[in-house]
Amino acid sequence: MPELPEVESVRRALTPHLLNQTVLDVRLHRRDVLVLPGDPPGGFARQRRPADRVPASSRGVSAHLLKGLTFTRIDRRGKQLALVAATLDETPNAPDTHAERALGVHLGMSGHLEFIPAGGRLPDGPGRLHEHVHVTWRLPRGSLIFADPRRFGLLRALPTTAERDAFFAELGPDALAVTTDELAAGLRGSRRAIKAALLDQACVAGVGNIYADEALFLAGIRPTTTAGSLGPDAIERLARAIRETLEAALASGGSSIRDYRDANGHQGQYQLQHAVYGRGGEPCVKCGFTLSSCTVAQRTTVYCRKCQPERAVG
DNA sequence: CTGGTCTCCTGATCGC
DNA sequence: TGCGATCAGGAGACCA
Fold this sequence. Notes:
- It is a single chain.
- The chain is 24% helix and 20% strand.
- By secondary structure, the chain is of the alpha+beta class.
- β10 and β11 form a beta hairpin.
- The two termini are 34 Å apart.
- The structure holds a DNA duplex.
């Protein structure tokens, strides 16, 4: 589901509901959506491990899921969120004892965080979300739910600042503000296709299949171009195109292709402005030429053979 | 190290 | 109406 604009829209919509709210109770309906310290790095959703290693003490799990703590902020880098919470009464003279921990959230393809006001109900929508609620947090004014039909999403317990830092440190610069120099550093010497590089979260964090195609179209660069062969002008155009594409999408609340909704259940509108994504075989919005489709990095890729020439200018 | 391929999972859609 | 094939916004594991 979500790339950076969608994740940021969720973060913004969720923040006022969570800030200063204490987690009264938490229910984990599926253990395998949660990664605890000591679990295999990818989580055991992908590990095909024996069932007898699944359970962890429910008390420990509740603490990792922030029970009893009060939300202080939501951080984001690329497509990753960290819900940060702390103990309510901290001793002013002993800030180091101030107990703060976080919960990392990957939404994957179909992950969904939503705040349900008290008395409200989870709407029946695409993806049959109500059948795939894996975690419920009870708050004073309602409930926060994590639902994820395809279960590619993950929650990661981040009990210490070191673990939180590590969670974000594996990511490249946030795509919303990526500079030409940062992008150039990520592409230098790379022989893979530029689109594959953009999808690599260590190169630039937050770009997925939709916005990779959109940004490459805006920059006039063919997705199959070897990343390391791009000249300085092309890299500058691309960095700007990434920022502008993501900002425009964010301003429209993201793209709702099928089941994306923000944390209030609202759809985004940016899908109405896609120039290439999902438009293979249709006319280019700039020149009218029929848009081409191919596969790059196992992902469907759409581009214009005329507006995105083999050899990028610059 | 790098880059390409496979895989995890459910649901929507399309052709027959 | 039903059924199988195909595809989907992500990314970790594995292999050459």
